[in-house]
Amino acid sequence: MDEKTIHEQPEYSLRELVGYFFRLGYSGFGGPVALVGYMHRDLVEKRKWISEDEYKEGLALAQLAPGPLAAQLGIYLGFVHYRILGATLTGMAFILPSFLMVIGLGIAYKLYGGLPWMQAVFYGVGAAVIGIISLSAYKLTLKSIGRLNIKSIQANWLLWVLFFLGFIMTVLTQSEEIWILIGAGLTYMLVKNPPKGLFITKSRMSIFLFTGIGLWDYDPEILGKIGLFFLKAGAFVFGSGLAIVPFLHSGVVNKNHWLTESQFVDAVAVAMITPGPVVITVGFIGYLIAGFPGASIASLATFLPCYLFTVIPAPYFNKIVKYGSIKAFVDGITAAVVGALMGSVIVITAHSIKDIPTFLISLSSLLILVYIKKIKEPVIILLAATIGIIIKLII
Question: Is 312 exposed, middle or buried (0-12, 13-18, 19+ CB in 10 A)?
Fold first, then answer.
């Protein structure tokens, strides 16, 4: 079958899709759980550019491959109708805005020797994003499995078991384990639609003058070390931006001593208060280590594996997913994936909700999104940041 006929011809242009991901890159707050929720809301429900099945395939593949979840899903959705060019442009458009933002914050950090005001901003923003990602995870659960009631449990009992397995393991380990996801897919496939026999498919793999602000402040010898370390981070860490933080901390602070503990915490704060993928914190870290070249190499090295691990298997993933057994495999993985995403909400909540004010901010953001449809996420983030600064000034 010709690759171009795998999916129906799109009703949107590549320019429109790239424009959407560029806007999501500068306005999509809340981390991977919220971002994948925005993509479903905007591209599947509202615009209907992407089908439910195509979205679920992309979500499953994004969890199977290492790297940041939201970026991988965006790359896959760009690939659905516009192949390599679509995947490349959507990925770049999604990452570029937040990369430029962290460069700007890195300049401010080096100029002023720290970001005390940012901790006040993060105090409010970190709480607000809990409400945002909670609603997104809930909607994904409804779409992928159903409501948690007797009828749904009877009809999809195994999917609910796999959902709670992903949820519990994420809460306990604070990361998404690839073997749990694969095991969930195999279990659901063997129970619902076992293959009639072993089959082997043959495939081929198709195998970038300012001074005083630290922009070019770097040691050439360290760039290779930065590239190698962040390449490992992108290639061997599975799950969301939350999962990559322990790996980065171990290498950046403990092993290589590139940053202090305080600087690393500031880098995580920068990632959380900027829109786009949380993993863009690597750009801020790279900038502190070796200026703009360090930021560029760290970002490229981190995102390159996820691009390759998404684009290379994508054509074959589209073909084999049509098999009933493979479809069941994807459904099982999706159930565990959504459970893991819901579990990550619990993990993030444990780190962000520190007292009564943050609890109230989080609850308020959730209630506003549910009951006041006209108020969008960026407005809530701005209000939460303002409230955080006010509370810290009073305290």
Answer: middle
- Kindly state whether residue 236 falls inside one of the protein's structural domains: no
Q: Is residue 296 one of the residues assigned to a domain?
A: no
Domain count, the chain: 1
pLDDT digits (tens, 9 = 90+) for 192-249: 878 765 444 434 333 333 444 455 555 677 888 999 999 988 876 655 555 577 678 8
- Predicted model pTM: 0.67
How many angstroms separate the CA atoms of 274 and 102, rounded? Answer: 8
Is there a domain that residue 109 lies in? yes
pLDDT (0 to 100) of residue 346: 83
Q: 295 in a domain, yes or no?
A: no
**DSSP characters over 130-197:** HHHHHHHHHHHHHHHT--SSHHHHHHSHHHHHHHHHHHHHHHHHSS--HHHHHHHHHHHHHHHS--SS
